[in-house]
Amino acid sequence: MRRSTRARRSSGNTRSRRLLAVVGTLAVFGGIVAVTQISSAEDRRPGKPRPAAGACVQPSAGATPPAGREETSRTWQDGRWVRNHWGDGQQCQPGTGGGSGSGGSAIACPDVAGELPEVPRRARAEVERNLGQLQAQITQADRRLAADGDRGEQFVRDSILRPLATQRRATLARITTAIDRFGPRPQNLARLAECQVAPVGGDDGGTDNGGGPGAPGTGAPSTGAPGSGLDVLANNCDESRLQAHDGFQNGNRCVSTAFGEVGAAANNPSLLITDFPEEIGANQPFTLRVSTRNLIRDRFLPAGQGGYYVESSLLNEEGLVRGHFHTACRMLGSVDAPPAPQEVPAFFVATEDGGGGAEPDEVTIQVPGLPQSGVAQCAVWAGDGSHRLPMMERANQTPAFDAVRIQVG
């Protein structure tokens, strides 16, 4: 379902249901709102030695990916890797799916889901199946690249990239035909067939979490402060360029309780789910499109490595929050009362890609499916580097959060 100006002028009942969905979800995630913010894009403690990393802990329930899925998955969108960390980065061992600092190269193909027009409801199942085939083709090519990539550029072009492009053209043609049966024909999807080899690592928009003795995944004991070894940029207001916050509704101030910097109202982050299906089948893959504004998606400290709530929120030179955003889907047992907050969602990822800015831009989230019939609530909310919902200048501003309901059955 693609949102439009017309869609937003729906009936009062629809608006009320949507408001209740967002308010109810905010109540569940309300514990995140105790947020903090401090400023600056550069590391403001250049002379401070990096402490040793903390020991890994076991991920909480629901934080590990299903069998056969990577802990960190990636898609190539708008010339950059978009990484999705299953369970918000709670795994001790770094994921092999192109996570931050993983190094090496991988197959980078143009994003198809984000280029499709609104898919007619009767075509969605076939389109989603073919989108899954496109991902499987990339995975197979990635494995071939890992095994034989050292045989030279010519081999990679002739034996990996060209066959992959042929497979993708056939799959893209099937997607075009499926949509054309029930709606306007997509134009020139074949332009998305060609792929390339792109470097994967900490220098492509992600967060390099460092290494060395006691690095994440080594199991070494902690010898430093909470979050040690994660390149925490700030945890107090000592070096902020902003004046002290006085407890009133004023922006561009620094909270002395080490919560960090809060920007002016016009610079506070915002986001919206701009496209989502109204109905899906159980275990049917689908996509959500998320548009963010005033959120620089370049900070992500893995929770499983001690990065949860340990870094103060940061603003860049333009006064915009640095962080990432989360996407979660859960089944609702009732639409008349809030769900139990401790229940594990059916789907949860954190997304960081080095993008974002003052102007809105979109990221496509691929959900592998929801396991049971009923009403699902899919929510998206911004987070700073340590996963907290960013503060707003005023108490009566809406935070960077959105939620929709999807019928599963």
UniProtKB/TrEMBL annotation:
Biased composition (Low complexity): 218-229
Ranges where the record places region Disordered: 40-105, 198-230
Bias (Gly residues): 95-104, 202-217
Origin: domain of life: Bacteria
Protein name listed in UniProt: Pecanex-like protein 1
Native source organism of the sequence: Micromonospora musae
